[in-house]
Amino acid sequence: MPKFPNYQTIDGLTIGASYLPDAVRSALAYKPQEDDLFVVTFPKSGTTWAQCIVYLILNKGKPYENLHELMAKFPYIELFGADAMEKLPRPEAIKTHLDFKRTPYSPSAKYIHVVRNPKDTCVSFYHHTLNIIPYEFDGTFDDFFEIFINGQNDYGDYFEHTLSWYEHRNDPNVLFLTYEELKSDTRNSILKMAKFLGDEYEKMLIENPDIMENVLKYSSIEEMRKIVRMDQLTQHPPLELLPSGLRHMMKYMQEKNITSLSNFEFVRKGVVGDWKNHFNKEQVKKLDDKTREKLAGTDLLKYWQKLGILE
């Protein structure tokens, strides 16, 4: 049996034990406002990258100064709780890792979904789980691989999550992108995102090359690594000023005597192909077989085969 991280189950959703159940339940019950924008991913599939791009587009290329500013203007609804969404200034956006059936949905809201190939997602999720101390996970990659391929990690099965959004890829209020597309053609992917946000944003980037260059620069891995740092979470405002869910997590960390997160880079490599440094031959075959089975008939299979990710 593999070693497991510290999870809990809230209304059928597997999630980290440090989350506040009431905040998660409020997220699941949230009723979107007409101008809500969601960035949706399975964990470790380019969430922060997509967040930063959207933030920079909405703020005309002006960068955020620290993690707290990004979180305040781009709140993580399952962590913060729905109350934080009601105070959100506009235009801003909401982060979630929920699958389609659980995501607060409205046909008048907009959803940007980014999917990453399962091999790199598994590797990135492993490092995330190993290094985010509240998970209390000291297992090996082999342990986490078994958890991942069986859909026992937080937020559940990768393939079910991916298919739930893939089925809505042509909906007018959904923009479906791949992480690999973002990497190979970042500029055009940014323009797609801008047009989806509104024609005025696409026009802004086309007519103002300096703004486009700032979006590219400040959403780069190098810049995100400087600013999106986990150690900032322990340098938070007074607890009473934090949203209920984040306040609960900070108290949880205090009770566990977690005083520093400085040894972990939330933005790690941001590359395509890191799975080659972790998977053995048996694991490659096992995950490839499951990918073909679960994603049969989708364009994703052909795309990842073309890139050499799927053997």
TrEMBL record:
Residues 35-226, 252-298 form the Sulfotransferase domain. The keyword Iron does not apply. Keywords: Transferase. Gene3D superfamilies: P-loop containing nucleotide triphosphate hydrolases. The keyword Transferase applies. It comes from the Eukaryota. Pfam families: Sulfotransfer_1. InterPro entries: P-loop_NTPase, Sulfotransferase_dom. PANTHER family: SULFOTRANSFERASE SULT. Belongs to the sulfotransferase 1 family. This is Sulfotransferase domain-containing protein. It comes from Cordylochernes scorpioides.
